[in-house]
């Protein structure tokens, strides 16, 4: 089986499973929505003289980071519960295709959730999203891809442990700190209406992060599955 065909098959398998059950989507979406509602009712930003431009980046990335971790925890959960991890490792294709399929499915899933969350956040905080939409989409997409590449690799590492739900955040959050910081800074500049030139270097750093860990996942996934 060709690598790209196997990757698309595994990606479609995961997405079809999620479309059938909607378990991860429901948990992730309502968790994100709950965080936004808590933030919107906990602080009176207008009385503090703050607008969404000042606090929006932090709120969006707290929501994105923890919702992404929640979805990544389920990346290999079905295979573990059905005792199919060995079957996944014996799949008649290059192991890198399994990683790429999982990585693609995770990235698409997180992006779909954020596509719904971003308009809701702007509605709750009274912010005009349309004027910064192209730049914001670029920042979120690039950083989500980098975060998902690292998260997919760590999800594969932690899936065989008894406390994988606890181990994954402990591994992922420190390692993903650079891409989260770059995402917050780029999002803040984007929401403030700055041109792409002012935060383009941050997007480039996040893109390099994503490339590095995608390549690392491709090269190391065979050894991870053997363990």
From the alpha-carbon coordinates, what is the Rg to the nearest angstrom? 18 Å
Q: Work out the helix count.
A: 10
Number of strands: 0
Taking pLDDT < 50 over at least 5 consecutive residues as the criterion, the unreliable ranges are none
User: Distance between the terminal alpha carbons, to the nearest Å?
Assistant: 24 Å
Q: Name the overall outline.
A: globular
Derived structural class: mainly alpha
Helix coverage percent: over 70%
- Major sheet: none
Order of helices and strands: HHHHHHHHHH
Oligomerization status of the protein chains: single chain
Strand content: under 5%
Tally of domains: 1
Layout of helices and strands:
Blueprint (H helix, E strand, L loop, with lengths): L2 H19 L1 H20 L9 H21 L4 H5 L3 H5 L5 H31 L7 H26 L5 H12 L1 H15 L4 H31 L1
Textual characterization of the structure:
With 227 residues, this protein is mainly alpha-helical. It has one domain. 81% of the residues lie in helices and 0% in strands. The protein is built from ten helices and no strands. The protein has helices at residues 3-21, 23-42, 52-72, 77-81, 85-89, 95-125, 133-158, 164-175, 177-191, 196-226. The two termini are 24 Å apart.
């Amino acid at each position: 089986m060709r690598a790209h065909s196997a990757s698309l098959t595994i990606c479609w398998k995961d997405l079809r499973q999620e479309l059938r059950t909607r378990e991860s989507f429901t948990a992730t979406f309502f968790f994100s929505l709950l965080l936004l509602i808590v933030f919107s009712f906990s602080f009176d930003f207008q009385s503090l003289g703050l607008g969404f431009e000042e606090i929006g980046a932090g709120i969006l990335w707290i929501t994105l980071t923890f919702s992404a971790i929640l979805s990544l925890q389920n990346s290999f959960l079905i295979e573990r519960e059905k005792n199919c991890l060995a079957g996944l490792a014996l799949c008649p294709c290059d192991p890198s295709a399994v990683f790429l399929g999982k990585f693609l499915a995770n990235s698409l899933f997180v992006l779909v959730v954020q596509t719904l969350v971003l308009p809701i956040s702007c509605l709750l905080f009274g912010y005009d999203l349309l004027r910064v939409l192209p730049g914001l989409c670029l920042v979120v997409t690039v950083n989500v891809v980098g975060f998902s590449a690292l998260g997919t690799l760590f999800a594969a590492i932690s899936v065989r442990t008894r406390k994988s739900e606890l181990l994954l955040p402990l591994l992922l959050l420190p390692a993903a700190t650079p891409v989260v910081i770059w995402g917050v800074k780029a999002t803040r500049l984007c929401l403030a209406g700055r041109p792409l030139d002012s935060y383009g270097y941050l997007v480039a750093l996040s893109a390099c992060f994503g490339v590095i860990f995608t390549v690392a996942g491709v090269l190391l996934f065979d050894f991870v599955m053997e363990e």
